[in-house]
Amino acid sequence: MIDRHILRNDPAAVKAGALRKGIDVSSSLDQWLSLDSQLRELKTSLQADQAEMNRISKSIGMLMGMGKKDEAEEAKSHTKVLKDRIAEGEGRERDLEAGLRDLELEFPNTPHASVPEGLDVENNVVVREWGEKPVYAENPKPHWEVADELNLLDLERGAKISGSGFAVYTGLGARLQRALFNWMIDVQSLEHGYREIFPPYLVNEASLLGTGQLPKFGEDLYKTNDGLYLIPTAEVPVTNLYRDEILPNEMLTAKLAAYSSCFRREAGAAGKDTRGLLRMHQFDKVELVKFARPEESYDELELLVKDAEVILQRLGIHYRVVLLCGGDMSFSNAKCYDLELWSPGVGKYLEISSCSNFGDFQARRLNVRFRRAQGEKPEFVHTLNGSGLATPRLFSAILETFQQPDGSVLVPELLRPYVGTDRISR
RNA sequence: GGAGAGGUCGCAUAGUGGUCUAGUGCGCCGCACUCGAAAUGCGGUGUGGGGCAACUCACCGUGGGUUCGAAUCCCACCCUCUCCGCCA
User: Fold this and answer.
1) How large is the ipTM?
2) Fewer CB atoms inside 10 A, N or C side of chain A?
3) In the structure, how far is the CA atom of residue A386 from the C1' atom of nucleotide B28, in angstroms?
4) Which domains does chain A have, with CATH numbers?
């Protein structure tokens, strides 16, 4: 959500920011401004009535205390009109507040000044590349073929026991999978200083409202009979840890890393990038989350991206870093980098991580604040997150990148202690 | 899942319809005393909002209700604790 003072005092900036994302908010913004001035006008008069009512009630109390029953009854009879007017005012106040909040949900976060202009992918900017596309004697196979030959995945039985979009990792495939997220959470927590979190996989509605999956994107979530939802990413439980709290200054920048399974219905996703492991209803991910001071958050974003990149560098997988243009960014983003790894078998760069700074947009919804010093007013923190990284595409990239002419796969050196072998073969 | 107890200003507690704009203790901040400190004394110490301001409104787990007036009474829900049952 955008700060009401900004909406009120600089609506032009909000309008321009939304346009950079290809969203026209002018009419809802005008509506907001009108409701806002109505609300403030109402509040002023309503509060005068409430103050008057409080005065009368207090005096009735005093009269009762002194035993002047008749005078108290007399005073009571005067409150009827006032009481009705207050009730009506409170009703209107509620309506106006609800109207304002509904409109506020339509205003996207304003892109940071460093975000490139443009509305589609061609306007994204590749800021750097690491490594090179590996060269193969023959056409490299896609990971589903490699995995099939080595018995690392059982997609058919996954479909049988759960449905399409659910993979069974088998044998060394299961072990490689476990090796990956074990190693990744170790790197982020032990080397990069993130506090390790193991969160609940089921969360309540308030948490999803806080991070913005609800009310708009409920269709993408699995919901239980108890009104709880399976998490689509560890971002949800982890970012909500400090919902409705005021953090001490010395706690910032707070860096948290969580491994979790993630569950997404993604109803309309079929058709694109769906083969093999590329789009799953259940997958595993190490998520990085930061709570930062506003003046430090953009530096922290750069560091967050680097923390995610380390994983690919150490594995030796070619990738590039893309700075998204306004139109390709999500609703609540202020600035976003995508990491895209090279998938030799698929022959494409695939998104493996999205690292975002939300500014105070998400914090305002979550009500996460911090206090610079005792006696100072609380301020909203900036929230950031990014994957570091998601395993299915990493798993598939390893199979594709390190496949050998004889059909085996070389295990990246640093994973060997975790996997227990240097080569996966028939 | 069953029975009981309870959710109050950072913490601990008081408050069961009207000077409660919530008392007290601890903590914290300021001042005094002191060479300095401790102890002591005095004052202050929540969040959000409206108003140029004086000032004012809302908030005692959440949401409703009764009343001129609700922390206090009524209803629903959430959470915590204790005991029982079940269980990895």
Assistant:
1) 0.84
2) C
3) 38
4) 4-104 (1.10.287.40), 121-424 (3.30.930.10)
